[in-house]
Specification:
The chain has 158 residues and is α+β, with helices and mostly antiparallel strands. Helix content is 37%, strand content 23%. It is built from six helices and eight strands; from the N terminus they run E-E-H-E-E-H-H-E-E-H-E-E-H-H.
C-alpha cells in the first residue's frame, strides 16, 4: 500500500501531474526528499510551496505554476470579500516556500510538521495538481473512512 507507480505523468512543457505514493523519512535536519520523477517534471523551478491541508491534517505541496493559478483567483477578489481575505491570510501566514537542494530535499518548518503530525516516516501522496505529505497512520485512517465515498465522487467530478 505504501508504494505505487513511481512515474510522474506529463511531459516537458506540461503542467506536472502528481501520481503515486512514496514512503520516505525525515532526516535529522527535518528534510524530506521529493521523488526524483516529480522534480524532473517540475523542471528548472526548484521552489515548492507547502501549506496546511484545508480538509485534513496533512500538508499540501504545490509547484509555483499551480499555486500562481490559485493566487490569481484570490487577487481578483474584492478587498471587501472577507472569505477571500481570510483565505489569503491563513495561506500566506501558515505556509512556507522551500527550494529543494542538490539531493532533492526540502526542509519542512516545525509549525507544518506539528500541524500534520509528521515525525519520522512520511507518505508523499500524489493528488494530481499537488502532492501531499501524510503521517502513514493518518493516511490509512483517511483512506479507510473515505474509500466508500469514491463511487459518488467519481460520478460527481469525473
Amino acid at each position: 500500500m505504501y508504494t505505487s507507480d513511481d512515474t510522474a505523468h506529463g511531459s516537458k512543457g506540461d503542467e506536472p501531474i502528481f501520481m503515486g505514493t512514496h514512503k520516505n523519512s525525515l532526516d535529522g535536519k527535518k528534510r524530506l526528499t521529493i521523488p526524483s520523477k516529480w522534480r524532473e517534471q517540475m523542471g528548472a523551478g526548484k521552489t515548492l510551496y507547502l501549506m496546511p491541508g484545508m480538509d485534513t491534517e496533512c500538508l499540501w505541496v504545490y509547484p509555483k505554476g499551480e499555486l500562481n493559478l490559485k493566487i490569481n483567483r484570490l487577487r481578483q477578489a474584492s478587498m471587501g470579500d472577507d472569505e477571500a481575505q481570510m483565505l489569503a491570510r491563513i495561506f500566506g501566514g501558515e505556509s512556507q516556500d522551500a527550494e529543494w537542494d542538490s539531493q532533492g530535499r526540502v526542509r519542512v518548518t516545525d509549525f507544518l510538521l506539528e500541524y500534520a503530525g509528521l515525525k519520522k516516516e512520511v507518505l508523499i501522496v500524489g493528488a494530481l495538481t499537488r502532492f501531499e505529505m501524510w503521517d502513514p497512520a493518518a493516511y490509512m485512517a483517511f483512506m479507510k473512512q473515505h474509500r466508500s465515498k469514491l463511487k459518488d465522487a467519481v460520478r460527481n467530478h469525473m
